[in-house]
Structures are given as C-alpha cells and as structure tokens.
Specification:
Distance between the termini: 26 Å
Number of strands: 0
Helix content: over 70%
Largest sheet: none
Shape: elongated
Structural class: mainly alpha
Number of helices: 7
Strand content: under 5%
Oligomer: single chain
Amino acid sequence: MSKSLVQAIAIAALPALVFFAAAAVMSKASHLEYVDQIVGTTAAPADRQPLHFRLGYNTDEVNRYWAAIVPDDAALQAERRFLRLDLIFPLVYGAGLVAALLVAWRLLGRPFKGGCLVAPVAITLVADWTENLAQLAQLRRYVAGGESALQDGWIRVASTATIVKLLCFGGACLLLAILLVMMVRGARPA
C-alpha cells in the first residue's frame, strides 16, 4: 500500500471518527433513542424522520413530529437536551472536518489560503446553529401554545438552515474526497 493511500485513509478517518463518536455521545447524553422510540410508536411512518435529517419541512410537519414528543415529558426533555447539545456538536465535527481538509491541502504541497477550504464548513456551522436555535424557540412556543403558536416564518428559516447545513456538509465532504483522490494520484492542485 502506498504512503499516500495510507495518509488518505488516515485523513478520511479523522472527521468520520470525530463525527460518529461525538454523535454517539450526544445521542446517549440527550437520550435521543427514547425520542426515536416514542416517535416510532406514535407518529405516522412519514413523520418519523427527525427534523434535523430532513431536506426541508413545513409547519404541519413540525407539528406532527412534535405532537408525538410533547405529550411524553421524558421525550420532550430529551428533545430539548438534544437541541441544546446540538449547538456544541457543529464545533466538534467542524473542527475534525477542517483539520482533515487542511492536512490534505498541505500534503498536496499547497500553502494555506483558507477561504475555499473553510467556507463550506463555516456555512455548515452557522446553518446548524440557526436550525437549532430556531427549533428551540419554536419548540418552546409549541409547548406553551400548541400548533397555533408555531411561526411559519421561523419554521421556514429552520427548514432552510437544515437544507443548507446538509448541502454544505456534503459539499465539504466531497471537497475532502477530491483532495484525497488527488493525493493518492499524486496530483497537485493548480
């Protein structure tokens, strides 16, 4: 196995390990599996996917998802705890992804110029925070006033932020994959 292939595998493993380890800790600490269990037994199949994994959602979908959670106090507390912990999670996975991107870039022999490597991760972080803060505020309103308390505008902001988060995270991962392929092939970026 070539040295560059071993390096590429190690670089790819860094953000993957950081992401999945942090996700597991966050899931365990928030008791997210309980939320999944409650939603899985009380929500319709189309409403079971967590909001943070959806490519867009509207007020009706948020209402149906949270309607399965809010009546169960333990599930509600777990959902709140998850959304709060998910404000820290982007810093952790973002650091792993930026580190991998920078190492790959340097191993390709390029000096750090920053923007194109860090931008998709930075946008992902801001979008993730926007998503979580909007959802926390809307969940607080939902608990106090039900479906009628949800604000369409803020749900759209959270939904858009979720889409941007998923797309930019995917873009950053694709950029890393391209850099790693270039490393293995011995190419140098222009």
